[in-house]
Amino acid sequence: MNPLVYDLPYDALRQRLVDMGEPAFRATQLYEWLYVHRVTSFAAMTNLPKALREKLAETFDVAAVRELQRQVSKDGTVKFLFALRDGNAIETVIMRHRYGNSVCVTTQVGCRIGCTFCASTIGGKVRDLSAGEIVAQVVEAQRFLDREGERASHVVVMGIGEPFENYEALMTFLSILNHDKGLNIGQRHITVSTSGIVPRIYDFADAKLQVKLAVSLHAPNDELRSCIMPINRRYPLAELMEACRYYVETTGRRITFEYAMLGGVNDRPEHAEELARLVGDLLCHVNLIPVNYVPERQYVRTPRDEIFRFQRILQRHGIPTTIRREHGSDIAAACGQLRAQHNRQKRRQAAVEGAR
């Protein structure tokens, strides 16, 4: 299996072409075909010499993902189930906002973090994605939007997997995504979410990017968070908050705390008061998330009036707080849910075939 051409940042691609005996300007032409015209084959790159096109086709692959399924919600949300070249499946989502179209990308096949409300972790982690496999999700989403004359203006790295456990590929992806000769999506229009991998929060702060950071918090104390998110046993809240303070002090940027509202679990007024004490000294924003129903999980969504009550408590303490607008509630809305359905179908089919 050849490497993906999408795996290479601009400078690395230029050097690779020079090593192949080609002039450096070919990299600009190649990037334009890949990210501006978004062609699906080297043969379509008509201003490249035929010999180079053939050499590229022998050296790299362009087809990184293949659409298996697409669900379109009445609110305009589009969820794709993509097959990778090795047959594994991942999800990518287009979400419509007043400010533009946001693409939510996946960084791993499955996830090992084990958050108890999440469908992404069902079955554990299979492998990391390459930078090019993450890039290709944005390219495919943009091809879909091209047919509507629209553009992907924002990217959120909040799909299946823990981005900071695939850190090198993530950073390469961000450089490709942001490059002015490529997709040219500004850093301030990109958000990366982590479950709280503390060492990487320090690394990310030291990189001094303009990319937004979101931390999945979901509980205001160690006992509850360790039950909901096992990663807390490795990186408890004291360590996580210290890393978050370092990030804010180093970058001067506000941090977002994601907080899934789990009915009867973490949504009481006393939890809101405790959360306010935990994050109140930080330059931050809290995003309350009405949890999506997942058949394999036991959680229920907090009633809306109680979510508003939770929000009012935080705001009374001076903490900017929003409630995430629901996307795709009439389709497999939860992250990883469509992939989980696909995997269940594959297992049933394999069982039937094995019984014959």
Automatic annotation (TrEMBL):
The active site is at 91 (proton acceptor), 335 (s-methylcysteine intermediate). Signal peptide: none annotated. S-adenosyl-L-methionine binds at residues 161-162, 193, 216-218, 292. InterPro entries: Aldolase_TIM (IPR013785), Methyltransferase_A (IPR040072), RlmN_N (IPR048641), RNA_MTrfase_RlmN (IPR027492), rRNA_lsu_MTrfase_RlmN/Cfr (IPR004383), rSAM (IPR007197), rSAM_sf (IPR058240). Its EC number is 2.1.1.192. NCBIfam families: rRNA_mod_RlmN. It comes from Calditerricola satsumensis. Belongs to the radical SAM superfamily. RlmN family. Its cofactor is [4Fe-4S] cluster. This is Probable dual-specificity RNA methyltransferase RlmN. GO terms for biological process: rRNA base methylation; tRNA methylation. Specifically methylates position 2 of adenine 2503 in 23S rRNA and position 2 of adenine 37 in tRNAs. It is found in: Cytoplasm. Coiled coil: none annotated. PANTHER family: 23S RRNA METHYLTRANSFERASE, RADICAL SAM CORE DOMAIN-CONTAINING PROTEIN. GO terms for cellular component: cytoplasm. The gene is rlmN. Residues 97-330 form the Radical SAM core domain. It catalyses: adenosine(37) in tRNA + 2 reduced [2Fe-2S]-[ferredoxin] + 2 S-adenosyl-L-methionine = 2-methyladenosine(37) in tRNA + 5'-deoxyadenosine + L-methionine + 2 oxidized [2Fe-2S]-[ferredoxin] + S-adenosyl-L-homocysteine; adenosine(2503) in 23S rRNA + 2 reduced [2Fe-2S]-[ferredoxin] + 2 S-adenosyl-L-methionine = 2-methyladenosine(2503) in 23S rRNA + 5'-deoxyadenosine + L-methionine + 2 oxidized [2Fe-2S]-[ferredoxin] + S-adenosyl-L-homocysteine.
